[in-house]
Amino acid sequence: MRLSLGGRTGSFGRGGLIIIGLGLLLGLIAGCAPVFSPAVLQQVNRELSYDLVATDPEAYRGQTVLWGGVIEKTTPKEGNTELEIVQKNLGRQHRPKDGDTSLGRFLVNYFGFLDPAIYQEGRKITVIGEVQGLEVRKLGESDYRYPVVDAVNLHLWPKPMPLERYPYYWGPPYPYYYWGPYYWGRPWMWP
Predict the structure, then answer these.
(1) How open is the CA angle 108-109-115, to the nearest 5 degrees?
(2) Is residue 46 within 8 Å of residue 94, measured between CB atoms?
(3) C-alpha–C-alpha distance, residues 169 and 165, integer Å
(4) Could you tell me the pTM of the whole model?
(5) pLDDT digits (tens, 9 = 90+) for 18-45
(6) 84 Cβ partners below 8 Å, 6+ apart?
C-alpha cells in the first residue's frame, strides 16, 4: 500500500500495517474491559440476590454479593463513608438498569473517604461487598430494615451525557411548505 504525501511517496510496509492492526486491536480490547477484576468477581456468590439476603441478612453474614443501584445519600464519618443505595437490577457489565423497579434499599460501608459532591444522589453505583447483617432505621415515619454491606470494591458509573440540541431550524421557512421534488408553496397553493 502506497501513500502520497505532497509529492513524496511513502510506504507503510508490512511492519507498519502490523503496528496499526495491533493498535486497533488494543483499542477494541480496552473498550470492552470489565469494571471489576476477575479475581474479585470469583469471590461473589452469584446465588445471593438482593431479595434473598434482605429477608434475613444475618444468615448470610460474611458472604460476598454483587449489588447495584442509585445513590440516595452519602454520609462521611470518622474513618469511613456510608452510602444509602436504592437497589436496582443489574444489566450488561453489572451496570444498574434504568427504571422505577427496585426491591428495596441497602447500606454500604466504605472504609475511606468518598466525596459527597462526587458520590451524589442519583448517581448509579455497583458494589461488591461482604454482608454484615441488618440495621433498622427510620425511613419517613416507619422503621426500615437495611441490609448492610462492607465494600470490597465499588464502581461509580459516569453521568449520562446530555444531548445537545442544534439551535437552528432546518426546514423551509414557516408558513411555506415543501411538497414534492420541485414544488414550493403555501398549503392553499398545493395541487
Answers:
(1) 95
(2) no
(3) 10
(4) 0.69
(5) 777 776 666 555 555 677 888 888 888 9
(6) 71, 72, 73, 74, 75, 105, 106, 107, 146
